[in-house]
Amino acid sequence: MTDERLRHSDAAEYPARQVAGRGPGWYRGDVHLHTVLSAGGELSPGQLAAAAREIGLHFVATTEHNTSAGHGDWSRYAGDDLLVILGQEVTTHTGHWLALGLEPGHQVEWRYGVRDDAIEHRLAQVRASGGLCVAAHPYAPYESGTLAYPYRCFDAVEVWNGQWRSDLPWNADNEAALAEWGRNLGHDIHQGRWWPAVGNSDAHLAGQLGTPHTVVHAEELSVDAVLAGLRAGRSWIAGSTAVDLVLTAATGGRAVGVGERLDSGGEPIEVRVRVAGVPSGTVSLHTERGTVLRERLPGDGAGTIRWRTTARDGGFVRAEVRHPDRQMAALTNPVILT
Predict the structure, then answer these.
(1) Could you report the per-residue pLDDT of 237-280, keeping only the tens digit for each?
(2) Is the overall model pTM greater than 0.90, yes or no?
(3) How buried is 93 (Cβ within 10 angstroms: 0-12 exposed, 13-18 middle, 19+ buried)?
(4) What is any Pfam family matched here (predicted)?
(5) 115 and 184 inside one domain
(6) 11, 75, 104, 276: which could form a disulfide with 302 (CB 3.0–4.6 Å)?
């Protein structure tokens, strides 16, 4: 059956652009998860939907390995309180990527590697229908899991992947992915195109969903609006729904948040990070000059960090929050300073 025939066969079972009726705001979601249709998956769509609602997620994406067979199964679990995005984890021979926002039944070809010059065509097919392409777990230490394609091929990069684990979701693979992303960020912003970071659980088993997940600012809780927020980098990554964070940069009465651009006119800029849910954690701020500030949160895990800078001193600022054991609790996309 061709992709087109699959698309029509599932169209009545699932609305391609499900709108859940919520206005502008911050929404929490996990866009990399698996059911029993993927190797190692032990959960049904119903179990994952129930778990998403229980922990307070607003959206999820179904991303089975190389199949769209489960798209129609999710229609009964979507609602005003839970948006379901149709997708696929495309496991090529030399790296995995997430195709998000697919039409029902659209299956993306996966049988190629970096030497086949095939990936750009497949990415273009997903983008042509409004979809988003995300580099998945770039440093996963298993055959085909390590990404051989450059980050610039994609629309966003999964710098934090739960790697099937809820007990220790931050590891050396994620540290390496974040380091590569952060090292190139200043150059990419200066060149006029940067790649937003996302974080997902890659859930296969019970208890993994949402560890971590991405918090995105969207104009409404719909597929198009959520993908637009992710594409623009209007998002940050949380290790759990207990963690909250707001990063802003302000000058002259104007304030912007993550993924936005602040034209300071050469005036001083005040950066603020407000955090909750990370007891005795550490907040750090980062620019192209490296780590420029590090401060400890109080024992109750709530606090506001302030730092003053200028656009001359840095073209962006982003934040990280870590638990006392150095496990990541949250990290943000940058605020662009001009």
Answers:
(1) 999 999 999 999 999 889 999 999 999 999 999 999 999 999 99
(2) yes
(3) middle
(4) PHP_C
(5) yes
(6) 276
